[in-house]
Automatic annotation (TrEMBL), chain A:
InterPro entries: Trm112, Trm112-like. It comes from the Eukaryota. Belongs to the TRM112 family. One of its GO terms (biological process) is tRNA methylation. Interacts with TRM9. GO terms for molecular function: protein heterodimerization activity. CDD domains: Trm112-like (cd21089). Gene3D superfamilies: 2.20.25.10. This is Trm112p-domain-containing protein.
UniProtKB/TrEMBL annotation, chain B:
It is found in: Nucleus. One of its GO terms (molecular function) is protein methyltransferase activity. One of its GO terms (biological process) is methylation. InterPro entries: DNA_methylase_N6_adenine_CS (IPR002052), Euk-Arch_PrmC-MTase (IPR052190), PrmC-related (IPR004557), SAM-dependent_MTases_sf (IPR029063). Keywords: Methyltransferase, Nucleus, S-adenosyl-L-methionine, Transferase. Its main location: nucleus. Belongs to the eukaryotic/archaeal PrmC-related family. This is Uncharacterized protein. One of its GO terms (cellular component) is nucleus.
Amino acid sequence: MVRLITHNLLACHVKGCTTNNFPLQFQDVQIELQEAEFNPDFVRNLLPRLEWGALVDAAKQVGDTSLPPEQPEMTDDDVLQKLHHVLLEIHITEGAMVCSNCKHIYPISNGIPNMLLSEHEIG
Amino acid sequence: MIPTPDLSHLTKDDYEYVYEPAEDTFLFLDGLELEVDELRTSKPSICLEIGSGSGCVSAFLASILGTSTALFLCTDINQFASSCTLATGRQNKTPLDPIIGSLATPLLQRLRHSVDILLFNPPYVPTNMDEADGAQHTAGIQGSWAGGTDGMQVTDVFLKDVEVLLSDTGKFYLVAIKQNDIPGIRHRMMTEYGLKSVIITQRRAGREHLFIIKFSR
Ligand SMILES: C[S@@+](CC[C@H](N)C(=O)[O-])C[C@H]1O[C@@H](n2cnc3c(N)ncnc32)[C@H](O)[C@@H]1O
Ligand SMILES: [Zn+2]
């Protein structure tokens, strides 16, 4: 499943594409919401691993504007709840992710991203 | 006893394209089960399995840790394997996040020193190099076992990334067979990356002498 947490961890890895290769931009995406069990500790542990700006942006691209533009210093339960929803309950089922730098297109089909490159694109 | 994941949704047809759990898989599960206490107390939040195949191993890890406690990322070069991994997650009510990709390549940049549990049951069977190259290229079922010279052609590429991926307390569990030269692997990981290792368990199964090795800082 391409959840927004997964999207926040994927970067373009085409040979030589090393700047502006993250985050990938969504293209023609279809979305499905699936409830997931809320575990505040897990969400809190993910915080240091997130690129906040990229997450807020990705959420906007799929129509969710619940997150503040800057990462809040205090993460109370309300923020954690919102993060939980954005990171773990929004699923991208179809569409693509495009690299802003080299324009490589990574398709998403049946909820699975295809990040494979052809031989000449591998670094 | 941790129950073996429910794989009843996978059929003979799936196993035409995707590695069917076998002795190596089951030894991997047994090895993880021996680690239950350590796995739970370390409270991992990011788990990554390379070459997840059916998804059996990550689903098992999720049932050890609790399905809402961590992220279970699963890469495989074989797209049918990624589909099976997704289905196995659903069947076992545990969110597995499959990614079609080679090794950890699409995640390396963002997961630097972030992976708490790293798992790999690689294609470890010694074959000639062309067979392994071809299998990697076609990304079909041959890629499940064709390991090239010493069965290490694919694993060796990944070993270079392990230290970069592991978090401070991260652990890497690897399946290997005797012909892979286990003392050599362990020595290289120590001298080149400062990662220590222990053998968690081993078993003879037919012609294969299988080992589960754990690496950590
Ligand atoms: C021995 S099977 C293990 C499958 C499953 N984890 C298990 O234990 O039953 C090896 C798996 O690695 C995958 N694989 C081979 N080369 C790979 C690569 N370069 N990147 C990611 N996965 C790979 C194969 O497609 C296959 O699913
Ligand atoms: Zn790119």
